[in-house]
Amino acid sequence: MAEADSKTTRQEGRFGQGFLTDIWYFAALSSDLKAGKLARYEILGEPVMLGRSSRGEIFALRDICPHRAAPLSAGRIRQDASGAESVECPYHGWRFGYDGACTAIPSLVSDQAMDISRIRVRRYPVAESQGLVFVWMSSDPRGLGEPTEPPPTFPGVVGGGPKLVDQMDFDAHIDHAVVGLMDPAHGPYVHQQWWWRSSKSQHDKAKRFEPRDAGFAMVRHEPSKNSRAYVILGGEPLTEITFRLPGLRWEHVTVGRREVLSLTCLTPINGKKTRIVQIVWSDHPAFSILKPFIKVGARAFLRQDGDMVNLQNEGLKYDPALLWVDDADRQAKWYQQLKREWSASRREGRTFENPVQPAVLRWRS
Predict the structure, then answer these.
(1) Averaged pLDDT, 70-86
(2) Distance in angstroms (rounded) separating the CA atoms of residues 276 and 25
């Protein structure tokens, strides 16, 4: 194995370092991207410009002009006499097609020979699905890698627009953000609102898990009796919680014919910051009647997790060894196994084989 490949393997294998590649990352809501507009994002430490053409098509390019490094997202979309569109750099007017190819350098005069077709910026494959925008982050440093699978899709009511959207940047590597998200034992200590639960209501729990795609699921079950938030839904709710690489977690709740889908998307901004976006869809009347209260509660919930991340960083800055406990931390172990298998399967050019085995996990919370 080459030295570069060996280094990449070590980074992907060590918890809290490196990123998964050759995979879709959530970037934005479709509604965030308006026709004819450009927006700057950072994903895996790379500057990514997302835009929507006048025809409504999504595209993504590296947000650095190869001339003098100005961000292309600060420019504008231009249309030539033939109707072809391109992104114009704000510094010197260099233009790039949506495929990343340079189409014009205005400062050139007619007798100056320069093959502009050899100039390109990296193009990122991008897909729009269920009102969400995903970017494929290839392991190919030239950006030539193409998606090997469609973007993830989610069950339930995702056609009528979200009822709730919240966003926060955690000062943490995505690994720490993910295991914090799936940690089943922190709730009574970090989230002690009267409408959720308290440390006094702890009891033994046993939940059944099974592998799903590039992740796993806590299979459909009745919510715990000490989870008061489900009371507002009435009836007899059933819930299923699913995790999928690289950082997608969703809870699908059914109450008779009514549904709630709560999706949390974790996207690495860089090695020390992760964006958390929570999106809720529902056809349940509670989200019309009680939406202001639900919004305040969800926002408080997310910020309590953010505060705990900041507190945890006080210890993590010393790079301590971490102690994982079965069964409460089994999901965190699965996550690390899934990451290793994803990287190995891509590196070896073979089909991903989910390492998670069906199990009943027990913990107290």
Answers:
(1) 94
(2) 12
pLDDT for residue 313? 87
Decide if pLDDT at 334 tops 50: yes
Handedness of CA 308, 310, 315, 316 (dihedral sign): positive
Q: Are residues 92 and 180 in the same domain?
A: no
Q: List the one residue out of 276, 252, 273, 275 whose CA is nearest residue 264.
A: 276
pTM of the model: 0.91
At 112-122, the pLDDT tens digits run 888 898 999 99
Which residues 6+ apart lie within 8 Å of 348 measured at CB? Answer: none
**Which residue has tokens 């570069």?**
4
Kindly state whether residues 205 and 118 are assigned to the same domain.
no
Q: Distance (Å, rounded) from C-alpha 211 to C-alpha 243?
A: 10
Tokens of 65: 């002009």
Helix (H, G, I), strand (E, B) or coil at 14: coil
pLDDT of residue 257: 85
Count up the domains in the chain and report the number.
Answer: 2
Same-domain check for residues 177 and 133 = no
Residue 62 belongs to what domain range?
Answer: 23-137
